[in-house]
């Protein structure tokens, strides 16, 4: 009988580990817990810290903190200055992946594309109806 050894390479350290809910080995998930605890400790001391200040105080990279904000591992509502960054322009954001300006720009670009497509279809239909008259 084959035993299902559900193993994977840990994204944190590359070691082979038994798959689990966290998706990483115990060493790395323990390290992550300790880092998250350090972040929370700094924020409890001063809840007005921003992401870069927290990074400086904990010795962690700001990108790492931002990725935890995005994953919901750090709750923002208690900390007014903690922010994630927009995927496109790196502006400070507190929710989603894009700032309002980028989201609007993309939305209108999609709208424009859709509009162009509709116009093309109309034109083609007009040409066809002309041909088959
Ligand atoms: Zn690991
Ligand atoms: Zn943006």
Ligands and ions found: zinc ion
In helices, the fraction of residues equals 40-55%
Largest sheet: spatial strand order: 1-2
**Total helix count?**
4
Q: Name the average pLDDT.
A: 92
Strand content: 5-15%
Low-confidence stretches: none
Shape: flat
Secondary-structure content class: mainly alpha
Number of domains: 2
The ordered H/E elements are EEHHHEEH
Which radius of gyration do the C-alpha atoms yield?
A: 24 Å
The termini sit apart by 72 Å
What does this entry look like structurally?
This protein is mainly α and 133 residues long. The protein folds into 2 domains: 7-85, no CATH class; 99-133. 52% of the residues lie in helices and 8% in strands. The protein has a two-stranded antiparallel ribbon with strand order 1-2. A two-stranded antiparallel sheet has the order 3-4. Strand 1 and strand 2 form a beta hairpin. The radius of gyration is 24 Å and the shape is flat. The model has no long low-confidence stretch (mean pLDDT 92). Bound molecules: zinc ion (2 copies). One zinc ion binds next to helix 4. One zinc ion binds at residues 10, 12-13, 15, 24-25, 27-28.
